[in-house]
Structures are given as structure tokens and as C-alpha cells.
Amino acid sequence: MIELVDTHTHLNDEKFKGQEKEVIERAKAAGVTRLINMGDTLASSEKAVTLAGTYEGVFAGVGIHPEEVIEMTDREDDILAAWTDLPGVVAIGEIGLDYYWEKDPDKRKLQQRMFIRQLDLARQLHLPVCIHDRDAHGDTMAILKKEGRGIRGVMHCFSGSWEMAKELLKQDWFIGVDGPLTFKNAAKLPDIVREAPLERIWWRPMRRI
Ligand SMILES: [Zn+2]
User: Using CB atoms within 10 A as the burial measure, which of 27, 39, 40, 44 is most buried?
Assistant: First the structure.
């Protein structure tokens, strides 16, 4: 059977509470031998870390998601950094920008600052990042250009243009392909997946880069 790596799960979500073992076993039976489980708040990141320490083949990303953004301080940085020393924690994520749900310009500014802050943390920790970019391609790429030096990762659930994909591929980034590939209106994505090198549309769990 082909072995698959699910690079983006949310097993820490409330709806899986108490069924994590079952879900992981079901995924493995279907050929998903590794799962990277993303945190989106401090609480869910902590749960991702616990699951990674408990189950074989389960890895964790830790970070604050743009929809859950808070004004981070050194305290949050230190907590996230301490978790990345634990077994199975392989990335900072998911982090990024979400302008689909967030229309308030001040909140968008806060998302940008916390995105930059967590990119900086990833650089210091030599960890890859998992980026959430929804309706914010311009600012995401501008921030990566300015603040993303020496950082690699995956653009999760990629929804940008072929030009944006090419820019990311040039920087050795990975393109995350998710459910929207199957949507009838997935205009550009099938072409991008066809054009992108196969080894760039998946992401292996990697410890330090
Ligand atoms: Zn996610």
C-alpha cells in the first residue's frame, strides 16, 4: 500500500475529543502512516504536543493561528520554544493571515505582527513553518519576502496563482494541496499541481532544517 503523510490535521479539535486513538488507527489502516497535527492556540498546541508524545507516527506543529490571534509576549514565545524541544514537535504552525474572516484593519495588523513574530521564532529555532493564507496572498508574500529569510515550510491549502507558486518553489517551499483541488471551481489549482514538481507538493516531517 502507498504510504501517505497527512501534513495538516487538527486532531486536537474538540470534535475528536476522546476518539484520538481511533482516528489515528483508522488513518493508519488507510495508509496514512504519519500525521502532522497543527496547533492553533496555546491550548491546542499543547494538546498537539501531548498527542505527538503519545502516538507513534504523530507529529506536532505549535503556533497561534491568525483566526485565534492574541497579542503575544515573550511568555508565549518561551512556551512555544520550550515545546519544540519535546519529541515529535516538527514545526511552527499554523501561523499566517486570514483576511477572509477578519475584515477589521487593526486586527489584520495584529495578525501581521504575530505572523512576523512567529516567523522570527521559527528562524531562531531552525524549524519549518506551516502557513495559513486565506485571501491574503499579497501581504503573505510581502511578509515572507521581507521577514522570511532562511525559513522554509509549506503554504497550507494553497489557493494562490501559478506566479505565487513559482515564487515559493524557487525558495524551496512546499505547496499544500487540500480538498479544494476537488472543487468544481478549483480553476487554477489542478494546473498548478500538474506543473509543480511532485517532490514539492508533499512535505515530510522534518526536525531541524
Ligand atoms: Zn489548519
Answer: 39
Residue 187 in contact with residue 109, Cβ under 8 Å? Answer: no
Helix intervals (H) in 57-201: 74-83, 105-125, 137-147, 162-170, 189-195
How much is the pLDDT for 106?
97
- Ligand 1 geometric centre to CA of 43 (Å): 15
Does pLDDT of 38 surpass 90? yes
pLDDT (0 to 100) of residue 139: 97
> How far apart are alpha carbons 70 and 56 in whole angstroms?
32
pLDDT at 202: 60
Ligand 1 midpoint to CA 7 (Å): 10
CA gyration radius, the chain: 16
Give me the residue label for grid cell 502507498: 2
> Where does 4-200 sit in CATH, by number?
3.20.20.140
DSSP code at position 39: P
**Distance (Å) from CA 70 to ligand 1 centroid:** 17
The protein residues having their C-beta less than 5 angstroms from ligand 1 (an ion) are 94
What spacing in Å lies between the alpha carbon of 65 and ligand 1's midpoint?
8
Spacing, Cα 132 to ligand 1 middle (Å): 7
Higher-confidence residue of 134 and 202: namely 134
- Give dist(CA 132, CA 8) in Å, integer: 11
